[in-house]
Design brief:
By secondary structure, this protein is α/β, with parallel strands linked by helices. It contains twelve helices and twelve strands. A five-stranded mixed sheet has the order 5-4-3-6-7. A hairpin with a 3-residue loop joins strand 3 and strand 4. Helix 1 packs across helix 3 and helix 2 crosses helix 3. The protein is globular, with a radius of gyration of 23 Å. The two termini are about 35 Å apart. The C terminus is likely disordered.
Length: about 375
């Protein structure tokens, strides 16, 4: 109970900023005496600090209590199909360090060797005292790195090794810090829920545009993973009725960035970062707009089916594309949704995400933070399944 009350108080400070003890007691529904005891203990443990007194109000001046930014640090690791991203957050959720390393394809041994080197870089950055305050690591990765190799254009067998790797256990063996795992798009959904538009919505579908499109689902203000952790896996949604001799195809074939990459390659254009605004400039603009129209139509189809089942309040779309590309995609999705018959169901509002291209690695770091210090951290996690 003591630990739970500490977490409740810390979460109140995280959500509302510096507060006097009396306001903390009001927000947390704890007694003034309990709050005072907890605050004194957290001050001694250097988890919080007192700020200057608030003057100009009736009564005795009060000194707000605030989180100490250097009280604890958290590492986020995003193991992706095209890059490894690592992030260091402090106790108030501010970025302290970030590194992104691209690769053509993720090799098991090379990727974990890179993680080990970057963990050493983080220790060096923090110094001996700061490194002692590292509190956890969050790992975000696709559940099946070996999947969709034909679509990705990978060499047959190059990703098979990942099918036999327990990524969380492999990382845990490298560090004494506790390691939390989540599907990468679920982690991005957590980042949007904690620090983006998701704070204002109770029930929404989250769609993240990446090399392969994916998503997450929030129900009653909490991430919902489902029985196998795949709730919100929009990339796998079928796009049409399956015939006797042909499959239905999946959303990721139409709305993934690998499709845009292939379109550019077939046109003889040199590859560029898909987050580069030049994707909406000649000579790539026509291809990008053709992909946007194609992707938006498929996404709207998926939204229609999801809305009929889940009665969604909204759909948040984000990704690793440049903001002008995302804005153009959202306009096309809105237009495509208007072409459907919505009788009997309320169409959800479609919103742009606020977390941006780094949502997956931010979500990974938030997993570690909430695991150690939030009052209901299990609601932010999806259990890793071998």
């Amino acid at each position: 109970m003591r630990e739970h009350n500490e977490r409740v108080l810390l979460q109140a400070l995280r959500l509302h900023g510096p507060l006097p003890k009396a306001e903390l007691a009001r927000l947390t529904h704890l007694s003034t005496q309990t709050v005072s005891v907890i605050v004194d203990r957290l001050l001694k443990e250097e988890m919080v600090m007192r700020l200057e007194s608030l003057r100009g109000k009736v009564g005795q001046p009060s000194r707000p209590i605030a989180l100490r930014p250097d009280a604890a640090f958290f590492v986020g690791v995003r193991l992706g199909r095209r890059s490894l991203d690592m992030l260091l957050l402090d106790f108030v959720g501010a970025q302290r360090w970030h590194a992104s390393t691209p690769y053509a394809a993720p090799d098991v041994e090379a990727v974990f060797a890179l993680i080990a080197r970057q963990l050493e870089d983080i220790h060096a950055f923090l110094g001996e005292e700061g490194a002692r305050r590292l509190a956890g690591i969050g790992l975000a990765a696709p559940l099946t790195l070996e999947g969709w190799q034909e679509l990705l254009g990978a060499v047959p067998g190059s990703a098979d090794a990942w099918a036999h790797v327990d990524m969380r256990a492999r990382l845990q063996a490298m560090t004494p810090l506790p390691v939390e795992f989540a599907k990468d798009t679920a982690a991005a959904c957590v980042a949007e829920l904690v620090a983006g538009r998701g704070r204002a919505l109770e029930n929404y579908l989250y769609i993240f545009i990446d090399v392969l499109v994916g998503g997450g689902l929030v129900i009653d203000g909490q991430p919902h993973g489902g029985r196998h952790g795949n709730a919100g896996a929009v990339g796998s949604m079928p796009l049409r009725l399956a015939g006797r001799r042909a499959g239905a195809g999946q959303l990721l074939e139409e709305a993934s960035l690998v499709t845009l990459e292939k379109m550019c390659a077939q046109a003889g254009l040199a590859p560029v970062a898909l987050a580069d605004p030049c994707m909406l400039q000649a000579p790539r603009e026509a291809l990008t707009r053709a992909w946007i129209a194609r992707a938006a139509n498929a996404i709207a189809f998926a939204i229609g089916g999801a809305a009929c089942v889940l009665d969604l309040e909204g759909v948040i779309i984000d990704g690793v594309v440049a903001r002008p590309v995302l804005d153009a995609l959202l306009r096309e999705v809105d237009a495509a949704l208007r072409r459907y018959d919505w009788r009997g169901v309320q169409p959800p509002q479609v919103l742009a995400g606020e977390t941006g291209p780094d949502a997956k690695v931010w979500g990974a770091a938030y997993l570690a933070l909430h695991s150690g210090f939030a009052p209901a951290h299990d609601l932010f996690l999806k259990a890793a399944r071998s």
